[in-house]
Amino acid sequence: MSHCPIANSIRKFRFNAGEMTQDELAKRVGVTRQTIIAIESAKYSPSLELAFRIARVFNTTVEEVFTFEDTNLANVKEEK
Amino acid sequence: MSYHEKRAIVNMLSSISITVGYSVYLYFRYLAGGGEFANDPRFWANAFLIFIPISIAANILSSVFFTLHYRITTHDQEPAITDERDKLIELKGNRNALYVFSLGVMLAMVTSALGMPISAMFITIIYSGLLSAVVDELTQFVLYRRGF
């Protein structure tokens, strides 16, 4: 399985939103609970639209919820 | 096991049983004809044309029975929405199935080019169709099982 370079803080945001359930978040953004589980465990990278929808539920920006962790890019920077 | 995983297994078993059942029926027709159908393109073309609606109808029936069985046993409805992950998983399954079926069609052409009986070509096409359906459902099952 290929490594998903997009990390996320959905669990933290759900906790801060009064321990919002995965099912509730799924319903609010229009996907299945399994998709939220897959995103949270970094097995699936959401589309840009879904990323924006999730960020909007938590009243924050996409960058706050999702971060790009490209190890190849980091190696290139270190070499420079 | 989720709804999609169960559905993939049911679809796979349904495809296998339909194709094997029809193969047995064809084999008995072949035996009844004293083996004279082996090189008759009309026999194989008819067999193929009959197989397509039969498999479609059987797949619809199995899908209906699965949905009813799922509702009765789990007291739950099947997922109401198909989201982007479902569509991607379906596309990956279809892609792998097309690879397998393309290889099967090429193999069928090879049997014809090698001068083998026309039955070999049609049997290869039918079984590559079955294999591609199995690969499709197996891909979906694995992707749903591990998350993506």
List the helices and strands and how they pair.
The complex is a heterodimer of chains A (80) and B (148).
Chain A: E1 6-8, H1 10-16, H2 22-29, H3 33-40, H4 48-57, H5 62-65, E2 66-68, H6 71-79
Antiparallel strand pairs in A: 1-2
Helix pairs in contact in A: 2-3
Chain B: H1 3-32, H2 41-74, H3 84-113, H4 118-146
SSE ordering of chain A? EHHHHHEH
Alpha-beta classification of chain B: mainly alpha
User: How many β-strand stretches of chain A?
Assistant: 2
Helix content of chain B: over 70%
CATH topology of chain A: 434 Repressor (Amino-terminal Domain)
From the alpha-carbon coordinates, what is the Rg of chain A to the nearest angstrom?
14 Å
Summed over residues and divided by their number, the pLDDT of chain A gives a mean of 89
Can you give a write-up of this model?
The complex is a heterodimer of chains A (80) and B (148). Chain A is mainly alpha-helical and 80 residues long. Chain A is built from 6 helices and 2 strands, in the order βαααααβα. Chain A has helices at 10-16, 22-29, 33-40, 48-57, 62-65, 71-79; strands at residues 6-8, 66-68. In chain A, α2 (22-29) crosses α3 (33-40). The N and C termini of chain A lie far apart (30 Å). Chain B is mainly alpha-helical and 148 residues long. Chain B has helices at residues 3-32, 41-74, 84-113, 118-146. In chain B, α1 packs antiparallel against α2. The mean pLDDT of chain B is 92. Chains A and B meet through α3 of A and α3 of B.
What is the gist of this entry?
The complex is a heterodimer of chains A (80) and B (148). Chain A has 6 helices and 2 strands. Chain A has 80 residues and is mainly alpha-helical.
